[in-house]
Amino acid sequence: MNIQGQGALVTGASRGLGRALAEQLAVRGARAGLGPRTLAAGGSGASDWRYLPARRLALYVAASIEQGTRWVVLEHNGPATWARAQARAAEFLAALAAQGAFAGAGTRDSHFVICDERVNGEQSLAQGKFNLLFGFATTRAGEFDTWLVTHQPGANRVRPVSVNRSATARQRVEWEIQTSILRGEIHG
């Protein structure tokens, strides 16, 4: 087989079998790209986070949405503000998806944004909190890294929300969110 000029992505190429494979591909004329890993092999979040590009993308998206929605603390915390914030976050994620940043061919499989009464319940409103929940697929379509952004006067927070990875297919995202809210796991 002629692999001259072909490209290959090799993960775990810093040592062992991955390194040997990358070296052999390079010797035979292939362009071997290396997928660096972090030291955290899934312990601090999704298992995809052991790969540096996935972690960098997730942190960039989370920080961008948190910073890009800070204006909500200056607005009335209600459905009109929720709709505007949801639309802006969805536009941002759609632009990234159009550039190929996420797995999945369509919006349903690549990302979602929820900002309504499901994440902004009476308790959150009474505490002056605004919540926006979003997720995106970094490596597999329909499997989302899910984050919750919370804004309140004097404090902003973005954090990953643990969701059962086997149950995060798009059809079950709303069910998972509602169940988490009922269990008190998502309340800002």
Could you please describe the fold and organization of this structure?
The protein is an alpha+beta fold and 188 residues long. It has two domains: 1-36, no CATH class; 52-183. The chain contains six helices and six strands; from the N terminus they run βαβαααβαβββα. The strands form two sheets. It has a four-stranded antiparallel β-sheet with strand order 3-4-5-6. The termini are far apart. Residues 38-46 and 164-171 have low confidence and may be disordered.
List the helices and strands and how they pair.
Elements: E1 7-11, H1 16-27, E2 31-35, H2 52-68, H3 79-98, H4 107-110, E3 111-114, H5 122-126, E4 130-136, E5 145-152, E6 155-160, H6 170-183
Parallel strand pairs: 1-2
Antiparallel strand pairs: 3-4, 4-5, 5-6
Helix content: 25-40%
Strand order of the largest sheet: 3-4-5-6
**Biggest sheet architecture:** 4 strands, antiparallel
Question: Beta-strand percentage?
Answer: 15-25%
Secondary-structure-based class equals alpha+beta
Q: pLDDT average, as an integer? A: 77
H and E string = EHEHHHEHEEEH
Distance between the termini: 55 Å
Q: Count the beta strands.
A: 6
How many domains? The number is 2
Low-pLDDT runs of 5+ residues are: 38-46, 164-171
How many separate helices? 6
Radius of gyration: 20 Å
